[in-house]
UniProtKB/TrEMBL annotation:
Pathway: Porphyrin-containing compound metabolism; protoporphyrin-IX biosynthesis; 5-aminolevulinate from L-glutamyl-tRNA(Glu): step 2/2; Porphyrin-containing compound metabolism; chlorophyll biosynthesis. Belongs to the class-III pyridoxal-phosphate-dependent aminotransferase family. HemL subfamily. This is Glutamate-1-semialdehyde 2,1-aminomutase, chloroplastic. One of its GO terms (cellular component) is chloroplast. Homodimer. It comes from the Eukaryota. It catalyses: (S)-4-amino-5-oxopentanoate = 5-aminolevulinate. The lineage of its organism: Eukaryota, Viridiplantae, Streptophyta, Embryophyta, Tracheophyta. GO terms for biological process: porphyrin-containing compound biosynthetic process. InterPro entries: Aminotrans_3 (IPR005814), Aminotrans_3_PPA_site (IPR049704), PyrdxlP-dep_Trfase (IPR015424), PyrdxlP-dep_Trfase_major (IPR015421), PyrdxlP-dep_Trfase_small (IPR015422). It comes from Triticum aestivum.
Length: 332
């Protein structure tokens, strides 16, 4: 994946693309072209994954929906979700069963290749390969929501890191240096469904706005520098390892992990392979830990959110964070 001087993104799953204003729009905008390719239009998503607040995705969603304990989002018409199928993340057999029961009717499989909206949950070794195989066999599209994983796991995102090429990729604010922007792209035949080349209309007032594009270009140029991902892996690994060690020393059951600049931990014994596993965590304990850390360290305010490090974080920052965590864990 790379960015040219005109702001165009290029990667294995993003040869042709469209910019929009928000992450939600990138996911929402990617759905109609998938349905244009496969007219039946059912989608399959995974429990605990969050893909913005488009109606069809607010089924078994993660992020704030999981944090607030909402079963689904009130106000979403039943008809908007009737074509949404769900499966546990990392469960290949459940996916195969849904494809058998809905033969030829599933337009696309949407997923976070590494879950971040139910906490940090990496894929099992064969999971992504199996999804690629199943979708190809049935003629469905594989859509990677790389809003969190894009440019964090590798310059080419999770698809480069795991060696899997999706049919469509969606990206969020990371391509704008944190400014409001989203983008989706994929195979040429899919993106030619989008107007003006094709019949699927899309327009946004601030799509591809110059401020976000300029910030994004400079951010992505910085990420291209040698040693970027080695550094992220080093500081993130140190952070997670030492926090888990502190938990063990102070008598708290914890598990967690990281990939490059993305990490997370649960107040649970683990292992955590899906949303049901994540929900076994002690969320009340996480709340106490989070409030204790607010004296100087700002973590995501939910057990069901992944964390991120950046190139701005120094080894001193990691040291101070670990010291604060040890102190809070001792007091809990």
């Amino acid at each position: 994946m790379c960015v040219g001087s005109n702001g165009h993104l290029r990667c294995a799953g993003y040869r042709n693309g469209s910019f929009c204003k928000f992450r939600n729009r990138s996911l929402h905008g990617s759905t109609p072209p998938c349905a244009c390719i496969h007219w039946e239009g059912k989608i399959l998503k995974f429990e605990g994954c969050y893909h913005g607040h488009a109606d069809s995705f607010l089924v078994e969603a993660g992020s704030g929906v999981a944090t607030l304990g909402l079963p689904d989002s009130p106000g979403v018409p039943k008809g908007a979700t009737v074509g949404t199928l769900t499966a546990p993340y990392n469960d290949v057999e459940a996916v195969k069963k849904l494809f058998e029961d809905n033969k030829g009717e599933i337009a696309a499989v949407f997923l976070e290749p590494v879950v971040g909206n139910a906490g940090f949950i990496p894929p099992q070794p064969a999971f992504l390969n199996a999804l690629r195989e199943v979708t190809k066999q049935d003629g469905a599209l594989l859509v990677f929501d790389e809003v969190m994983t894009g440019f964090r796991l590798a310059y080419g995102g999770a698809q480069e890191y795991f060696g899997i090429t999706p049919d469509v990729t969606t990206l969020g604010k990371i391509i704008g240096g944190g400014l409001p922007v989203g983008a989706y792209g994929g195979r040429k035949d899919i993106m030619e469904m989008v107007a003006p080349a094709g019949p699927m209309y899309q327009a946004r007032t601030l799509s591809g706005n110059p401020l976000a594009m300029t910030a994004g270009i400079h951010t992505l140029k910085r990420l291209m520098e040698p040693g970027t991902y080695e550094y992220l892996d080093k500081v993130t690994g140190e952070l997670v390892r030492r926090i888990l060690d502190a938990g063990a020393k102070t008598g708290h059951e914890m598990c967690g992990g990281h990939i490059r600049g993305m990490f997370g931990f649960f107040f649970a014994g683990g292992p955590v392979h899906n949303f049901d596993d994540a929900k076994k965590s002690d969320t009340a304990k996480f709340g106490r830990f989070h409030r204790g850390m607010l004296e100087g360290v700002y973590l995501a305010p939910s057990q069901f959110e992944a964390g991120f490090t950046s190139l701005a974080h120094t080894t001193l920052d990691i040291e101070k964070t670990v010291e604060a965590a040890e102190e809070v864990l001792r007091r809990m």
